[in-house]
Amino acid sequence: MELIKHRVAHYWSHRAEAFEAQRLREFDSEKRARWLAEFFRYLPQGRPLRVLDIGTGTGFFACLFAAEGHEATGIDTRVTILGHIQRGGSPTGRDRVNATKMGYLAVELLLQGKTNRIVCTHMGDFTDVDISEGLAMKKSIQKMEVDVLAAMTGI
How many CB atoms lie within 10 A of CB 85? Predict the structure, then answer.
């Protein structure tokens, strides 16, 4: 089992490095113009934009917009990081599928003109809530969860 975990971790680590290298090459190639043309099919033109790239990964798109004179912020936040720490490893296939579904829903909401939304899961279903409502929600953490996390991570 440890060999399989090692191979999976190595595979995804290698893919991340290759992906970043590919994006850097694209930044200085004709693909840059193609990416920008695709974005500006849907975005207003003629004025600087404020762009928030959530799930930015390598930061390619945030850098792309910033280089064009737009105010761009890239945030790479993952709801499953605690799960990765608890399992002691990288994201699982399910983590990746769920992240993709959440990203898809976020784009669908934007295309519908809905902004200031948080994409989340509720009772196993993907949904969205107003950002104010989401930020106002109280989440409790049980002491046992903190103790288990501390024992597993050494924090």
Answer: 13
